[in-house]
Write a structure and sequence with these properties.
By secondary structure, this protein is an all-alpha fold. The chain is built from 16 helices and no strands. Helix content is 82%, strand content 0%.
Length: 329
């Protein structure tokens, strides 16, 4: 199967011209011209809670209607990717940068974990193209969140130097807002099913993209403030923050196709593999690796990888997913 330049351009337009991505661009622009576009903290917190709970609810409903055998393979593949990707990141950083093991472990924890917002933008992208995907992919998001962070911390040697902090980090991850809301939403959606979700669909369905746009406006402001740090990050770190997500995304797509996911589902798993955390991972790293430099990890994950994935990565992963699923199908 081949795809022409026109198709590629159309996919890129679908991604860039979407309201959430343009809201992100507005936030970056506002940051550059020093306009005050920051959301009030209460609204920022509310939008993040809304997105996590909405994705969890939808995923729980889809999980209830899915065959357990259909979920088992993708879940096991997701765990395997969550264990493998941070190791690859740790090794790649050794060759591309001069970072020490602690900072490389912190980076591995960020890139082994996931970005809810990147994943959400990918689902909006697939919906815009009317591409079908397995509804239980939100479950895969919750599954990948934990092992990637823990492996990154272990690679940094935190188990031997900060055993108490590592245990606290595990508690922080499991009881943190991201996992609690996402997992809680999955359970609620599973229990209530389609009929229960139908009663709240007017709130958690139609407004979803608009609220995502508000959240991405805030993310754009934060990313714009990191642009100066990008110039100081060093060439190797910039290469890693762009090239590694492509490699990890490809692995996720291939893994998804091998366990029977559709092209849309494989692309979603690829996005999870390619994304980098800037919410859950920083909190865990702060506890377990207090000597790690948060400026480096946030510059890479939020200042470089997140914008790249949002604008270029998502349509790129969709093209790869079509090619891979066609070849393996």
């Amino acid at each position: 199967m081949s795809y022409g330049v026109g198709v590629d351009a159309a996919l890129l337009t679908t991604s860039i011209a979407s309201v959430p991505v343009l809201a992100f661009a507005l936030g970056v622009l506002g940051s550059l011209v020093k306009a005050d576009l920051r959301l009030p903290d209460a609204i920022y917190q509310a939008t993040s809670i809304y997105l996590l709970l909405a994705i969890g609810l939808k995923g729980g409903v889809a999980l209830r209607e899915s065959d357990a055998s259909a979920v088992a393979g993708p879940a096991l593949m997701t765990i395997a990717l969550g264990l493998t990707i941070p190791v690859l990141a740790f090794v790649a950083l050794r060759f591309l940068t001069r970072l020490g093991p602690v900072d490389r472990g912190a980076m591995a924890a960020h890139y082994g974990s996931t970005s809810l917002v990147t994943f959400t933008a990918a689902l909006v992208f697939l919906d815009a193209l009317q591409v079908q995907y397995e509804g239980f992919v939100a479950t895969l998001l919750a599954i990948m969140e934990i092992p990637g962070i823990l492996v990154g911390l272990l690679l940094a040697g935190s188990a031997s130097r900060h055993a108490g902090s590592l245990g606290e980090s595990v508690r922080e991850i499991v009881t943190g807002r991201s996992i609690m809301l996402l997992a809680g939403g999955l359970v609620i959606g599973f229990i209530t099913g389609p009929e229960g979700f139908a009663r709240v669909e007017p709130f958690f369905g139609a407004p979803f993209t608009g609220i995502l746009a508000l959240f991405l406006l805030e993310m754009g402001v934060l990313a714009g403030r990191r642009l100066g740090d990008v110039r100081r990050a060093g060439f190797g770190l910039v290469v890693f923050a762009i090239a590694f997500p492509i490699v990890a995304g490809f692995l996720g797509i291939v893994g998804g196709a091998l366990v029977g996911l559709s092209a849309g589902g494989s692309m979603a798993l690829g996005v999870l593999s390619a994304s980098a955390s800037y919410i859950a991972a920083p909190a865990a790293v702060r506890l377990a690796l207090p000597e790690a430099n948060p400026g480096i990890t946030l510059t890479a994950s939020l200042g470089i990888t997140f914008p790249f994935n949002l604008v270029i990565g998502i349509p790129l992963y969709w093209l790869i997913a079509q090619q891979v699923t066609a070849a393996l199908g």
